[in-house]
Amino acid sequence: MGLFKSMFATLEQEVKKAINDDGSSGKKKKKKQRGKSSGGPPTRWEKAVISLDKIVTQVVKVDPDGIDLVCFGGNGDPEWYRNIKNTKGLEEMVNSERPRGACHMGSAMDDCINDAFDKDMTKRPVAILVLTAGKPDDADVLDNTLKNAVEKIASTYETCPLSVTFFQVGDDDAATEYLSHLDNAMQADCAANGETFDLVDTIKDEEVQQAMSEIKGTKESGKTGALIGAIAGAALGVGGMYIYNNQQVKKRTAGWGGNWKVSYGGEEICKLEIKDDQEGNLVINGFPSGEETTGTYTVTNDDGDEYDSEDEYAISFMDPSGEWEVEGTVEDEHAITWSDGTRWDEIPPDNGDWKGYAAAAAGGAATAGATGYLLDKKFFNKAAKKDQCDYIIIMDRSAKMAVVDDGE
Fold first, then answer.
1. Sorting pLDDT into bands at 50, 70 and 90, what band is 253?
2. Backbone angles phi, psi at 361, to 5 degrees
3. N or C: at which end does the chain have fewer Cβ atoms within 10 angstroms?
């Protein structure tokens, strides 16, 4: 089941309430765990960072060598971050500079295309995802780069080993129009067999919103749901993400103690025994290193009420090496996904089964409608099918990403 399994029927109202809450309730907290408060409607950049975290978590399971990340914006050259294998420090990395300056996407794309052609794409294709807010300031450069790329591929390859998926963050009309242009214009006929190579596809804001409306009330399979959750993360922004986490946690009434199966990329790693003192503290045993470690989670306030709406529910544990903190997202009361790419599933007592709980690993449900349409996009389709590719993500860090959309 995906990150946005059982999406809430009243999401819009709850997001609005949460992101505008001024924290004036005055309730005293027993403990406030580390985490972000919403602080107001999210910018496009904040949405993109949330989505990036979830996308990377899923894609590195397919690409053990790690993804490459390219950030552009301002007056400098694009910044490359190579072989990212988990989300440790990812947010700090991309936030080393705030969104500013011109949107020179064309020059960033030229770097990525040249990097792709330097590789042997017959052995390992390249899939590029672009998270962007608007029409680039160097649109002519971007057009020429993409057109030259697809024509070069058509003249030298029998199948197209390169794909570029543009993901629109926000509802800028000019961006929507420009992405439609790219979607239709970047094609060439293969010299070897006459097949039409279609280099580019796009995910526009209206498509994300349509998929969001479908996800509400559904149960996505674990095979695809986490990727849909990553897409939805860009639509929801900060407020919706922590509301989802809180709602799943409310189903859990007896702490996190028990036995849990740890898996990575679908393969079981170990089984953990967790002791919970019901005060927000965990003692964890069973990692392959044999070392005991600890974790923490947000607890209710002194009045026994649920967490105040201005706070994000947070759960984390220390890596057994003691070198870094791993942060979790509660998928439901029996499953947690972590920033190191692992997943924990609670083991039912006596090898039984959780009533009303369909294990994410079972998955297999066909995704249809708008959600299936999004997963059919080149980058996400390759990741969902676990295609062995080099995955590159380009992040627009221009001033266009600092905007708060009116629809938010």
1. low
2. -65, -25
3. C
CA dihedral over 330, 334, 338, 343, signed as positive or negative: negative
Q: Does the global pTM surpass 0.70?
A: no
Kindly report the three-state secondary structure assignment for every residue of the chain: CCCCCCECCCHHHHHHHHHHCCCCCCCCCCCCCCCCCCCCCCCHHHHHHHHHHHHHHHHCCCCCCCEEEEEECCCCCCEEEEEECCCCCHHHHHCCCCCCCCCCHHHHHHHHHHHHHCCCCCCCCEEEEEEECCCCCCHHHHHHHHHHHHHHHHHHCCCCCEEEEEEECCCCHHHHHHHHHHHHHCEEECCCCCCEEECEEEECHHHHHHHHHHHECCCCCCCCHHHHHHHHHHHHHHHHHHHHHHHHHHCCCCCCCEEEEEEECCEEEEEEEEEECCCCEEEEECCCCCCCEEEEECCCCCCCCCCCCCCCCCEEEECCCCCCEEEEEEEECCEEEECCCEEEEECCHHHCCCCCCCCCCCCCCCCCHHHHHHHCCHHHHHHHCCCCCEEEEEEECCHHHHCCCCCC
**With bands split at pLDDT 50, 70 and 90, how would you rate the model's confidence at 141?**
very high
Contact indicator for 276, 257 with CB cutoff of 8 Å: yes
Please count the CA atoms within 13 angstroms of the CA of 74 that sit on its side-chain side: 12
Q: Could you read off the pLDDT of 264-314 as tens digits, one per residue?
A: 877 888 999 999 998 889 999 999 989 999 999 987 654 444 444 445 578
CA end-to-end span of the chain, whole Å? 27
Q: Residues 100-126: pLDDT tens digits?
A: 999 999 999 999 999 999 999 999 999
